[in-house]
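This section describes the prediction task in plain terms. A model, or a person checking by hand, is given the sequence of a single protein chain and must write out its three-dimensional structure as a string of tokens. No templates, partner chains or ligands are provided. The sample shown here is typical of the held-out split.
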Amino acid sequence: MTHTLTPIGVLACLMALTSPAAAQEATSGDAHPLFGEAPEVTVLPNGLRVISIAWPSPGIVAYYTLVRVGSRDEVEAGHSGFAHLFEHMMFKGTRAMSGDEYERRIQGLGADNNAYTTRDFTMYTVTAPAEELRAVVDLEAERFQRLSFTEELYRTETGAVQGEYAKSASSPSLPMWEALSGLAFRDHTYGHTTLGFLADICSMPGEVDYARRFFARFYTPDNTTIIVAGDVDHATLVREVRRAYGRWRGRRARVNVRAESAVRSGAEHLVWNGSAPPRMLLGYRTPAFAGDASRRAERPRALRETAALDVVRTLVLSEASPLVQRLVTEERTLLDLRGYAQPSRDPGLFVVSATFPPPDDAPAVATRDAAFDAAQDAIQAAFDGVAGGEVSTERFERTRSHLRYALLADVAPPSDAADLVGRMIAVGGESDDLSRYLRALDAVTREDVAHVAGSYLLPERRVRVTLAPPSPGESPPERQEPLCPEAP
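The expected answer:
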């Protein structure tokens, strides 16, 4: 029913909303680089924002509800993982409608529904026949305003979250991301993954009162945006949302997210007792998607740097790049090499992922580390080459054009449109951040690309996590089973 979006690259998150006193309705008829006609936006007096996107999908609408709460907001010690937990809890019903009844009604409409959680936001998705819009509005309004759960149901779902963590921990990806996040962030809440710290997940079953407060603090109209794409009339949508959500009250809690005190470098190696091939993650500290939200004058420059970093990622780490062709296709020293320029609300990470061929025999530590170092050096040399202006004008122009049109080509059904707009809004905070980003991408120059590579993709801004089966003399760490022992 639900899934969690991994930390791997997303254009993430939700709006900084106006106060109810200042709320106003607005529609924009300006041309849009992707949709033709710009999305229409209305803010209700309670702060709930409603966006419609005209998209060629006769008879179909994608109804996305964006809540600006993610693992970033989990600032209280001992309480990580609650944003992800509520991705689950939101499907468990209200006083008037059980979770099973909600699912039965959704399916009865011929609709599909899902959800995912990121560092910066949680997204709830419904794709349904356009003629059932009113029914969808009613179902979603009911659970977002009147979620209710018993302590027994809550404990059952926290057990499911513990099981999800255990399943994820059986793959190398989770421990690697946990280690990378912890190395890069010692102060900021990006230092834990969306799933949360294991100790916090284990203690969740006894935190039902905290969970209810969490819902009241963050599931509020001023912290929520409804985005509907497809065969939708904006006036009709607003009328239905106003009818169903207009009495919703509450203000988002203010949380003190600590800024990271320093840009760090460091490395950690994980010994993995399994069949997974050796892997490496490199994380370079990069700015927030749209810069510091309190300094609006910086937004154009920040968006341009974000777009320039996307160009660097494509130049160096796309499937057709010279580096990937050499290391993966020709020399075959890597099975896979890719990059994730992770847009985020606060300064985040530009991540490089490398997977190595499994060795025939367990190599000595020095041999294994030499292979990791060689790949890291090759990747760093490619970044340094971009910083030094080695990219030709022709290749730069071709790459920038490809990046722009690939982004637009990836939007096909209305769900893609709603998701892309929502995630851009989420990290940027403005309803037109998608068009702002595309304009920034159009304005990026070779000098911009060299600047960001030379300013951010540096060894002193890099953290590294490697993972491999045991080398001679090494043994994997023992892990307690089950991960969360039962309370006595």
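For orientation: The first strand starts at residue 25 and ends at 26.
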